[in-house]
Design a protein that fits this description.
Blueprint (H helix, E strand, L loop, with lengths): L10 H4 L5 H19 L3 H4 L3 H8 L10 H6 L9 E5 L7 E10 L2 E6 L10 E4 L5 E2 L3 H4 L17 H9 L7 H4 L17 E5 L6 E11 L2 E6 L11 E4 L5 E3 L2 H4 L3 E2 L3 H4 L4 H14 L25 E5 L7 E9 L5 E5 L10 E4 L6 E2 L3 H4 L17 H8 L23 E6 L2 E14 L2 E6 L9 E4 L5 E2 L3 H5 L3 E2 L3 H6 L6 E2 L14 H4 L16 E2 L2 E3 L11 H5 L4 E2 L2 E2 H14 L4 H8 L10 E9 L2 E9 L6 H11 L7 E2 L14 E3 L3 E2 L17 H10 L6 E3 L16 H13 L2 E2 L49 H7 L12 H20 L7 H4 L15 H9 L7 H10 L1
Parallel strand pairs: 7-11, 18-22
Antiparallel strand pairs: 1-2, 1-5, 2-3, 3-4, 6-7, 6-10, 7-8, 8-9, 12-13, 12-16, 13-14, 14-15, 17-18, 17-21, 18-19, 19-20, 23-26, 24-27, 25-26, 25-30, 28-29, 31-33, 32-34
Length: 876
């Protein structure tokens, strides 16, 4: 039985009728990329990574995260190797030294005899220093003597050398002499040399390949027996890939020398055998073993036939689906097949070992918040492993069968890098890390001509490269398209106003694909995890933290799509629409234990040149989205319908249009004579009185009807007014922490909110002491600067604000008392008056609370000021 295997990047296989939706995408992307390979446009040559990172505000993945690139830059030396070098500064005298560490063409050496003493270590360059293999001085009749600083440490240096060099690894002569001297390992593989390539899809098969190009260690390999006319079947692989082996490895590993099934039909069987014999008859020079020293060692596995697992699709790495171990070749390799329940199925097989990053234990997706793509032919959209295993009559592979060692990496979401297009391996594109789940990365390829879903690669993949790799190695980089470049400043996941559904085919645009990790073609997007469209109802009340003008500029909706991605984008948009994004981020961050049973996501915000991040809990199920949006609105003290699955077209059911707000800010520095607009209906006298007292108004008040016959029908927080708020947000350094005023008097129907009175604490029965009356001042003393600066850091408390009418009444009473006292004729001071009363208190004033201070003030002649003091004290 001949298995049907599809080779990645094969146009011929991609033209098959099955999986037509995916194949058409592969065909389109492949043909377009091939057309662009012919001539590199000037725009691609002028692409500048530094400018692109500045424009997008992103950061590049650190070069140290790409271990395979670092290993390719090594010179072949390893710590512990022994060689001969000049002994100190004596010409013609040599001594044995060992390699401590390497850095490209530089070696850190230590003379034999120093042991663990590091003070005499020295650096030398492979190309410019006199370095020779062990035994070279004896062959040329030159003395072998330790440096002077070492001569007194040992008596018999001959025996010392014998003990030191016994069992030691000597540096090969080819590293110190000949054409490989000083060369990096990746440059040892030159065009024209022969290797063997292990078949990735069919059993233990291997076939010779010829190196056509070597670009920075990335090899273009051509199968033995094919010529330039079949160049489309060439394979692009990094030289450290485990599939690449030295010539003759197949015979040692007992592999069958068979051409890959993807190209076998191109030639007759006689032609393949003749080409194979020609390769071994010519006896090409073999590559040194040092080239393959950094290839990972394959460990023994414990898999059995019939075991179920989760696997990344081998040909289209856009999803994770159920798979089955179909064959175990030996203790190292086994064959995995993607499950397909249809009668006419296509086999997708790939050879694995225990450390293969594409195989995962059952429930890995569930534990990491990734949806399992149901196998082709599965009857239900919601995949359940327990039911599936029961129906199949098989068992899941145990967790200990998989790689247990965690993979440490330096990648972060949002980082930029360069990645191979899995549908066109000859192309390297600009890519962004969109998600990280343990050892897997989701990459969005911004340079692909036909945008598709995010591809999945392991963190140690050899198909990803650091920023600037293509430029430094002269390889063409597929730069982002202009539309993508301009959309970086906006949000690519939002839906147009007329489009309320997200197409889920693999050939849809990147705007919809960003909402899901995978496409529905690969099985992702179960109904229970698909978030409905989230609408921004900018006419609703925006609360104290959000800027109504900025909300009006947001897109009408986001989604539908994956719940985590849609809600993450919605919250990011709201945070950016805030007066102070950092404050909204603090309100939304997770405090205590999770309540929704969802996933904790990190959301970032920038404000005044600083970056903030917080952990926010997001729901995963669609049935929780409505309540989650409503609870979030309550935390932001805005209308519950400001955003959510319901679109508010006319009037809000919450009748939030009766609310408005005024916004006041502080500026620590030079004074500004800028005055923020007052609420409708306030008079000039009350405005003057408020300005004298420097009192802050209530954040939210009901609209007041004007006495002059015109009503304030337009909210004071219109988009035009909010634009002015934007200017304030730039000019001022801090904003007032606002909260909704509580309690309304019966006169609220007239548009005048009232404030609940502060309850008067009981005063103990004792003789009240008369305190000399305080002299009124035009304005209260300014807060000390440290208090003003620290006020924003203190815990915000719910406070009540007096209405304008009460403030005016208090002011009139105070002015009336001052006038009465001014009319009283002054009397000659008496001795009793000169002697001030002694103030006696029953407790330490430093330990008083705000309520104690208010109680004391009400016991004095300053009782009318108690409410004002209570307001100002609560603001601190």
């Amino acid at each position: 039985m001949v298995e049907s295997v599809v080779e990645p990047g094969c146009v011929e296989c991609a033209s098959r009728p099955k999986f037509a939706g995916i194949y058409s995408t592969v065909d389109g992307m492949k043909l377009e990329s091939m057309e662009s390979d012919g001539s590199c446009s000037m725009e691609e040559m002028e692409f500048n990574w530094e400018e692109y990172l500045d424009e997008t505000g992103a950061i590049a993945a650190p070069p140290t995260a790409f271990e395979h690139v670092e290993n390719g830059l090594q010179s072949g030396f390893t710590p512990g190797m022994a060689l001969e070098v000049l002994s100190g500064h004596e010409p013609g005298v040599y001594w044995v030294a060992t390699v401590v560490t390497t850095c490209g063409e530089l070696l850190l050496l230590r003379y034999a005899g120093y042991g663990q003493d590091r003070h005499a270590d020295f650096w030398c360059h492979v190309l410019t220093s006199e370095l020779h293999p062990v035994g070279w001085s004896a062959q040329h009749g030159l003395p072998l003597r330790p440096p002077r600083a070492l001569q007194e440490r040992h008596g018999d240096w001959g025996n010392f050398l014998v003990q030191t060099l016994t069992g030691a690894r000597a540096a090969p002569a080819r590293l110190l002499e000949g054409p490989q001297r000083g060369k990096e390992l990746m440059h040892w593989v030159v065009p024209g040399c022969w290797l063997e390539l292990q078949d990735a899809h069919v059993g233990l098969h291997a076939w010779p390949v010829r190196v056509e190009e070597n670009i920075g260690g990335r090899l273009r390999l051509r199968y033995c027996g094919l010529g330039p006319a079949e160049a489309r079947h060439d394979q692009w692989l990094f030289f450290l890939m485990p599939r690449i082996r030295p010539l003759g490895w197949g015979c040692v590993a007992r592999c069958s020398l068979e051409p890959p099934s993807s190209v076998r039909s191109l030639k007759l069987e006689q032609h393949w055998r003749q080409a194979l014999g020609q390769v071994y008859e010519d006896q090409p020079s073999l590559l040194p073993s040092e080239v393959f020293k950094d290839q990972p060692e394959i460990r023994s596995n414990s898999f059995g036939v019939g075991m179920k697992l989760e696997a990344v699709h081998p040909a289209f790495p856009f999803g994770i689906s159920p798979a089955t171990v179909t064959k175990v070749f030996n203790d190292k390799f086994f064959l995995v097949e993607m499950d397909d329940l249809r009668q006419e199925k296509t086999s997708w097989n790939f050879v694995c070992h225990v450390d293969s990053p594409g195989i995962l234990p059952v429930h890995w997706c569930l534990h990491n918040g990734v949806h399992v793509s149901p196998p082709q032919g599965y009857s239900s959209h919601d995949f359940d492993w327990a039911e599936y295993l029961k129906n199949c009559g098989t068992e899941a592979a145990a967790d200990y069968c998989f790689r247990q060692t965690p993979v440490n990496h330096d990648f972060q979401e949002g980082m930029k890098l360069e990645a191979v297009n899995p549908l066109s391996p000859s192309d390297i594109c600009v890519a962004t890390i969109t998600h990280i789940r343990k050892q897997l990365l989701w990459l969005h390829l911004e340079g692909a001509k036909s945008p598709g879903p995010d591809c999945i690669v392991p963190v140690d993949s050899m198909d990803i490269f650091p920023v600037g790799w293509c430029d430094s190695n002269g390889f063409p980089l597929k730069k982002p398209q202009k539309s993508i470049l301009t959309s970086q400043k906006k949000i690519a996941v939002v839906q147009p106003e007329k489009q309320l559904s997200v197409p889920l085919s693999a050939h849809d645009g990147s705007k919809s694909m960003d909402l899901t990790l995978l496409s529905s073609e690969t099985g992702l997007g179960a109904a229970r995890y698909t978030c409905p469209t989230i609408y921004f109802n900018h006419r609703c009340f925006s609360g104290p933290y959000l800027n109504k003008g900025r909300i009006a500029e947001l897109p009408q909706s986001v989604g539908p799509g994956n719940c985590l991605l849609v809600l993450h984008e919605v919250l990011s948009l709201l945070i950016n629409a805030a007066y102070k994004p950092s404050r909204v981020l603090r309100e939304l961050q997770l405090k205590g234990q999770p309540q929704w049973g969802g996933r904790e996501e990190t959301i970032k915000a920038k404000y005044q040149g600083k970056s903030y991040r917080a952990t926010v809990e997001l729901v995963r199920n669609a049935e929780q989205v409505t309540e989650f949006c409503r609870r979030t609105c309550e935390r932001l003290e805005c209308c519950p319908n400001l955003f959510g699955p319901a679109m508010v077209t006319t009037e809000c059911p919450e009748n939030c249009s009766i609310l408005t707000k005024t916004k006041y800010t502080h500026y620590y520095g030079k004074k500004r004579n800028r005055r923020v607009g007052r609420p409708p209906g306030s008079s000039s006298s009350s405005r003057d009185a408020a300005r004298k007292r420097k009192k802050r108004r209530s954040c939210f008040v009901q609209k007041k009807k004007r006495v002059g016959g015109t009503t304030a029908d337009t909210p004071s927080e219109s988009p035009q007014n909010s634009v002015a708020g934007d200017d304030e947000d730039e000019d001022y350094d801090d904003e007032e922490e606002e909260s909704i005023s509580e309690g309304y008097s019966p006169s609220s129907a007239d548009g005048c909110p009232s404030t609940p009175e502060v309850p008067t604490p009981p005063i103990p029965d004792k003789k009240r002491l008369r305190v000399p009356p305080l002299r009124l001042r035009a304005s209260p003393p300014a807060l000390p600067r440290p208090l003003a600066l620290n006020r924003a850091k203190r815990k915000r408390k719910v406070r009540a604000f007096s209405s304008d009418e009460e403030e005016q009444e208090v002011q009139k009473q105070m002015e009336h008392k001052v006038e009465e006292k001014a009319l009283v004729p002054k009397e000659a001071p008496t001795k009793k008056a000169e002697k001030a009363d002694t103030l006696k208190l029953d407790s330490d004033p430093l330990q008083w609370s705000v309520a104690d201070v208010v109680r004391f003030i009400r016991s004095t002649d300053c009782a009318p000021l108690s409410n004002i003091f209570h307001e100002q004290a609560c603001l601190l």
